Amino acid sequence: MIFTIAAKELKGLFASPLAWVVLTCAQVVLGYSFLRRLDDFLQVEPRLIRMASPPGITELVAIPTFATAAAMLLFAVPLLAMRLIAEERRNQTMVFLMSAPVSVTDIVLGKFVGLVAFLALMVAMVAFMPLTLAHGAALDYGLLASVTLGLTLLAAAFAAVGLYVSSLTAHPLVAAIGAFATLLGMLLVGDTASDSLRARNWHVPAALAQVLSPLRNFEPLGKGIVDTHAVACLLLLTAAFLALAIRQLDARRLTG
Predict the structure, then answer these.
(1) Distance between CA atoms of 82 and 151, rounded to whole angstroms?
(2) What is the mean pLDDT of residues 66-75?
């Protein structure tokens, strides 16, 4: 049932003009960023050759493009996630879905999987850009795999937050603004709290506070370091907001 709901959500996204606008804008911006950095790399390449261990095209072109994609997800995911539950409530179709012989967990996970599948397409498009240079340049495939994993986990965490905020309101625009504000607040508060606690040598609370800073957890993966703590933080953040969404919808089902 989860995959049935996911397929319905994915089909709905591809039928939505907003999703196509987001996908197109993301591709245009990322394509421009990639080509601009590639041009810069070609200009400095003669100087890099004289260095003992120069950074390669993966570090100077691909990784900054992935960093740009991570920042774009902060804006794109709230727009894509806002309709998941809020629009169902606004159109009065959530009542039929909640009364169907399907659990709230299946509903939440189905909508989440559908959105993540769409975001995975965006991640795949970003990963394909440096792969087009494979025949003429030496790529660091381990680094590319690490940063692709990091971007996918980051997209999933953002999607979980957007889904939860969408479950709190019947107005999609409010859900989009709320999700963006929540993500931005988490980035600011998570970084500040983690740094403050670490400065006081409170390492365990600092490690827990780092869960609220998804972009910081993306950083080591963007450097080719598969940090298990960073991966665990992203997974824990995703699971926590999915659990909150399930609890919110379950409470709404009980209260009618």
Answers:
(1) 20
(2) 92
